Protein backbone atom coordinates (compact mmCIF):
# COMPACT_ATOMS: atom_id res chain seq x y z
CA UNK A 1 0.00 0.00 0.00
CA UNK A 2 1.20 3.48 -0.79
CA UNK A 3 0.38 6.24 1.68
CA UNK A 4 -2.15 8.62 0.08
CA UNK A 5 -1.43 12.32 0.08
CA UNK A 6 -3.79 14.73 1.82
CA UNK A 7 -5.30 15.59 -1.58
CA UNK A 8 -5.96 11.88 -2.28
CA UNK A 9 -7.44 11.20 1.18
CA UNK A 10 -11.10 11.90 0.23
CA UNK A 11 -10.91 9.79 -2.97
CA UNK A 12 -9.49 6.75 -1.17
CA UNK A 13 -12.19 7.01 1.51
CA UNK A 14 -14.87 7.05 -1.20
CA UNK A 15 -13.30 4.02 -2.91
CA UNK A 16 -13.42 2.06 0.36
CA UNK A 17 -17.04 3.10 0.93
CA UNK A 18 -18.25 2.11 -2.57
CA UNK A 19 -16.74 -1.39 -2.49
CA UNK A 20 -18.92 -2.59 0.41
CA UNK A 21 -22.40 -3.75 -0.48
CA UNK A 22 -24.85 -3.70 2.41
CA UNK A 23 -25.78 -7.41 2.25
CA UNK A 24 -22.12 -8.55 2.38
CA UNK A 25 -21.13 -6.79 5.59
CA UNK A 26 -20.12 -8.18 8.95
CA UNK A 27 -20.98 -5.90 11.88
CA UNK A 28 -18.82 -5.52 15.00
CA UNK A 29 -20.20 -3.36 17.80
CA UNK A 30 -16.88 -2.43 19.48
CA UNK A 31 -13.16 -3.11 19.29
CA UNK A 32 -10.84 -1.83 22.02
CA UNK A 33 -7.03 -1.91 21.83
CA UNK A 34 -5.13 0.30 24.29
CA UNK A 35 -6.55 3.85 23.88
CA UNK A 36 -8.12 2.95 20.52
CA UNK A 37 -11.83 2.26 20.76
CA UNK A 38 -13.73 1.89 17.51
CA UNK A 39 -17.51 1.43 17.42
CA UNK A 40 -20.16 0.27 14.93
CA UNK A 41 -17.72 -1.32 12.49
CA UNK A 42 -18.97 -2.62 9.14
CA UNK A 43 -16.52 -5.12 7.65
CA UNK A 44 -16.24 -7.20 4.50
CA UNK A 45 -13.93 -10.19 4.12
CA UNK A 46 -12.98 -11.96 0.90
CA UNK A 47 -10.25 -14.14 -0.59
CA UNK A 48 -8.14 -12.60 -3.33
CA UNK A 49 -5.12 -14.36 -4.92
CA UNK A 50 -4.69 -16.61 -1.89
CA UNK A 51 -4.79 -13.69 0.55
CA UNK A 52 -7.48 -12.68 2.99
CA UNK A 53 -8.68 -9.17 2.17
CA UNK A 54 -10.42 -7.49 5.11
CA UNK A 55 -12.09 -4.19 4.30
CA UNK A 56 -13.31 -1.80 7.01
CA UNK A 57 -16.19 -0.20 5.14
CA UNK A 58 -17.12 2.17 7.92
CA UNK A 59 -16.71 2.66 11.63
CA UNK A 60 -16.64 5.32 14.34
CA UNK A 61 -13.39 6.41 15.97
CA UNK A 62 -13.35 9.34 18.44
CA UNK A 63 -16.61 10.75 17.00
CA UNK A 64 -15.16 10.59 13.47
CA UNK A 65 -15.26 8.06 10.64
CA UNK A 66 -12.66 5.34 10.06
CA UNK A 67 -12.26 3.22 6.92
CA UNK A 68 -9.52 0.99 5.59
CA UNK A 69 -8.36 -2.38 4.39
CA UNK A 70 -5.77 -5.01 5.20
CA UNK A 71 -4.42 -8.01 3.32
CA UNK A 72 -3.08 -11.10 5.10
CA UNK A 73 -1.25 -13.85 3.21
CA UNK A 74 -0.31 -17.17 4.80
CA UNK A 75 2.15 -19.46 3.03
CA UNK A 76 4.84 -22.00 3.84
CA UNK A 77 7.23 -19.05 4.32
CA UNK A 78 5.01 -17.55 7.02
CA UNK A 79 2.55 -14.69 7.34
CA UNK A 80 2.69 -11.34 5.57
CA UNK A 81 0.31 -8.45 6.19
CA UNK A 82 -0.19 -4.95 4.89
CA UNK A 83 -2.92 -2.38 5.27
CA UNK A 84 -4.14 1.15 5.28
CA UNK A 85 -6.44 3.01 7.68
CA UNK A 86 -7.99 6.41 6.95
CA UNK A 87 -9.60 8.59 9.61
CA UNK A 88 -11.89 11.52 8.85
CA UNK A 89 -12.95 14.25 11.32
CA UNK A 90 -11.93 12.52 14.54
CA UNK A 91 -12.15 14.54 17.76
CA UNK A 92 -8.80 15.05 19.50
CA UNK A 93 -10.78 15.94 22.62
CA UNK A 94 -12.54 12.53 22.52
CA UNK A 95 -9.18 10.82 21.92
CA UNK A 96 -7.63 12.55 24.96
CA UNK A 97 -10.64 11.76 27.16
CA UNK A 98 -10.01 8.02 26.72
CA UNK A 99 -6.71 8.25 28.59
CA UNK A 100 -6.18 9.66 32.08
CA UNK A 101 -2.63 10.67 31.06
CA UNK A 102 -3.89 12.71 28.07
CA UNK A 103 -7.22 14.07 29.33
CA UNK A 104 -7.59 17.77 28.56
CA UNK A 105 -4.37 18.05 26.53
CA UNK A 106 -5.82 19.07 23.15
CA UNK A 107 -8.85 19.50 20.94
CA UNK A 108 -9.51 19.90 17.23
CA UNK A 109 -10.89 17.81 14.37
CA UNK A 110 -8.21 15.54 12.85
CA UNK A 111 -7.77 13.53 9.67
CA UNK A 112 -5.20 10.75 9.42
CA UNK A 113 -3.69 8.07 7.23
CA UNK A 114 -1.87 5.01 8.55
CA UNK A 115 -0.10 2.59 6.22
CA UNK A 116 1.39 -0.53 7.80
CA UNK A 117 2.91 -3.90 6.96
CA UNK A 118 4.95 -6.76 8.33
CA UNK A 119 5.66 -10.45 8.23
CA UNK A 120 6.12 -13.49 10.44
CA UNK A 121 7.88 -11.39 13.10
CA UNK A 122 4.50 -10.08 14.26
CA UNK A 123 3.32 -6.58 15.08
CA UNK A 124 6.47 -5.82 17.10
CA UNK A 125 8.59 -6.12 13.93
CA UNK A 126 6.16 -4.40 11.58
CA UNK A 127 6.55 -1.02 9.91
CA UNK A 128 4.10 1.85 9.74
CA UNK A 129 3.85 5.37 8.43
CA UNK A 130 1.26 7.77 9.87
CA UNK A 131 0.27 11.29 8.96
CA UNK A 132 -2.19 13.27 11.09
CA UNK A 133 -3.42 16.79 10.37
CA UNK A 134 -6.02 19.05 11.90
CA UNK A 135 -8.89 20.50 9.89
CA UNK A 136 -8.76 24.32 10.24
CA UNK A 137 -12.51 24.49 9.53
CA UNK A 138 -13.39 21.74 12.03
CA UNK A 139 -16.32 21.98 14.43
CA UNK A 140 -14.09 21.63 17.51
CA UNK A 141 -11.85 24.51 18.67
CA UNK A 142 -8.14 23.97 18.03
CA UNK A 143 -6.66 24.24 21.51
CA UNK A 144 -3.58 22.65 23.09
CA UNK A 145 -2.69 22.73 26.80
CA UNK A 146 0.47 24.20 28.24
CA UNK A 147 1.00 21.00 30.26
CA UNK A 148 1.12 18.96 27.05
CA UNK A 149 3.68 21.31 25.46
CA UNK A 150 5.81 21.20 28.63
CA UNK A 151 5.57 17.39 28.66
CA UNK A 152 6.71 17.25 25.01
CA UNK A 153 9.24 20.11 25.09
CA UNK A 154 10.56 20.08 28.64
CA UNK A 155 10.39 22.51 31.54
CA UNK A 156 12.21 25.35 29.74
CA UNK A 157 9.17 25.88 27.52
CA UNK A 158 6.94 26.64 30.56
CA UNK A 159 8.31 30.18 30.96
CA UNK A 160 7.51 30.97 27.30
CA UNK A 161 3.83 30.15 27.70
CA UNK A 162 1.58 32.60 29.54
CA UNK A 163 -1.70 30.71 29.28
CA UNK A 164 -2.89 27.27 30.35
CA UNK A 165 -4.68 26.65 27.02
CA UNK A 166 -3.39 27.96 23.72
CA UNK A 167 -5.13 28.20 20.37
CA UNK A 168 -3.20 26.90 17.37
CA UNK A 169 -3.67 27.62 13.68
CA UNK A 170 -2.20 24.58 11.93
CA UNK A 171 -1.08 21.16 13.10
CA UNK A 172 0.41 18.22 11.27
CA UNK A 173 2.31 15.21 12.52
CA UNK A 174 4.12 12.59 10.45
CA UNK A 175 5.87 9.59 11.92
CA UNK A 176 7.30 6.26 10.94
CA UNK A 177 7.51 3.19 13.16
CA UNK A 178 9.86 0.29 12.63
CA UNK A 179 10.10 -2.74 14.91
Descriptive notes:
By secondary structure, this protein is mostly beta strands. Helix content is 13%, strand content 51%. The protein contains three helices and eleven strands; from the N terminus they run αβββββαββββαββ. The chain has an eight-stranded antiparallel beta sheet. The chain is globular and about 55 Å long. The two termini are 18 Å apart. The mean pLDDT is 79.
Summarize this entry quickly.
This protein has 179 residues and is mostly beta strands. It contains three helices and eleven strands; from the N terminus they run H-E-E-E-E-E-H-E-E-E-E-H-E-E. Helices cover 13% and strands 51% of the residues.
Write the layout of secondary structure elements.
Blueprint: H1 9-18, E1 26-33, E2 36-48, E3 51-61, E4 64-75, E5 78-91, H2 92-97, E6 106-107, E7 109-118, E8 127-134, E9 143-145, H3 146-153, E10 165-167, E11 172-178
Antiparallel strand pairs: 1-2, 2-3, 3-4, 4-5, 5-7, 6-9, 7-8, 8-11, 9-10
Structural class: mainly beta
Radius of gyration: 18 Å
Number of strands: 11
Low-confidence stretches: none
Q: Could you tell me the strand content as a percent range?
A: over 45%
Biggest pleated sheet: 8 strands, antiparallel
Which key phrases capture this entry?
179 residues, mainly beta, 8-stranded antiparallel sheet, 3-stranded antiparallel sheet, 13% helix
Amino acid sequence: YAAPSRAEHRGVIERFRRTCEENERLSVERIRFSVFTADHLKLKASLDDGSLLLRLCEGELWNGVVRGEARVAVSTEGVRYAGQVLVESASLKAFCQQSVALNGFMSGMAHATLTFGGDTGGVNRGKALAEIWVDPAGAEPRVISRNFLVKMGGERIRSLLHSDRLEYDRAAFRCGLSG
